[in-house]
Amino acid sequence: MKGYYGEITIGEPPQPFNVVFDTGSSDLWVIAEECITETACHNHRRYIASSSETLVPSGNSFQIQYGSGAVAGDIGYDTVTLSGMQLRNQTFAMASTVSEQFALVPFDGILGLGFSSISTSGEQTPIQNMIANNLLDEPLFAIYATEQGGEIDFGAIDQSRLQGGEVVYSPVIEKGYWTIEMEQFGINNVAVGDSRRVVVDTGTSLIVAPVADAEAIHDLIPGAVAIGDSTYTIPCSLKTSDIEVQFTISGNTFKLKASDFILRPIDTKKEMCQSGISALDFNQNVPTWVFGDVFFRKYYTIFDIGRSRVGFALGEPGK
Asked: Could you tell me which residue ranges the Peptidase A1 domain spans (predicted)?
């Protein structure tokens, strides 16, 4: 798992941790001091239960499976501080078992911002805690992302991050993940497909398309090559071309230029670059895309809990 992360603290006195802000899950966990044998526990900050005066153990266990690995441990309640807010008696998990996929990541845990229906613990999520205790001016949060970093705004929209123009909203059609409807997608004004679901997921680094859709898109890009089942490469020389991928949502077209979705070189000669659109059948029953960081670096994204909708606006380019 990759994503944008920031610092929170847990406990009193506070213990700092870097966590990914993940709209694709709903639980909060950090690595615990009991995690000593797992490779993934090394080089990470670990929560020390005995050091917190406010920890209340629940007696319940926790296990969650991500696309990139699994985590397990014990559930407790403690004070969580982030963005100037104190979330008292917040449910969180102290992870004593962590998959090796997390070994080299620069964060110590994950803070889920999805809907409560996908919470593994079944208890109050961090965002529910914020709303229940009137810590937000408005029941929403927003993501601004660049290649260098980003920010998450709780309770307000940062107008300075918008390039101009209106925010386009799309209703959430399935609570759990932040799932919206896409009417059409295409490339260079050629429609490739229509009527797809989109999961808007800050815990995913790329844009993920159903296998057939990813193939159809890359078939229209000269020189694009599939590597394995999920990854595509594109000639780096096309990064300055006028190739453009388009997504139609709520009657509005959102565009990604070649430089937005043709990523880093994968070879020393810098001839082939990674495509920012990968292939995976996320949902076997309904064709579903996942919009990850590649999309957020172009569009400021608003997650409006109160009105159950997602908003997109062209983001101010990173300085």
From this structure: 4-313
- Quick one: pLDDT at residue 132? 96
Strand partners, 20: 5, 110
**Annotated catalytic, 201?**
yes
219 included as an active-site residue: no
Alpha helices in 105-257 (DSSP H): 126-132, 211-219
- Residue-wise pLDDT tens digits, 223-234: 999 998 899 999
Residue 303 bridge partners (DSSP): 141, 310
Same domain, 89 and 201: no
Cβ neighbours for 219, distance < 8 A, ≥ 6 positions apart:
none
Specify whether the CB–CB gap between 221 and 238 falls below 8 A: yes
Residue 280 to residue 265: CA distance in whole angstroms: 22
Q: What is the DSSP letter of 116?
A: G
Q: What is the pLDDT of residues 78-90, one digit of tens each?
A: 999 999 999 999 9
Q: 27, 78, 201, 304: which is the annotated catalytic residue?
A: 201
SS3 203: coil
* Statement to judge: residues 177 and 121 lie in one domain: no
**pLDDT-derived band at 319, boundaries 50, 70, 90:** very low
In the chain, the number of structural domains is 2
Domain enclosing residue 262, as ranges: 159-314
Domain holding 81: CATH number? Answer: 2.40.70.10
The confidence score (pLDDT) of residue 2 equals 60
The better pLDDT of the pair 113, 175 is held by 113
Same domain, 76 and 208: no
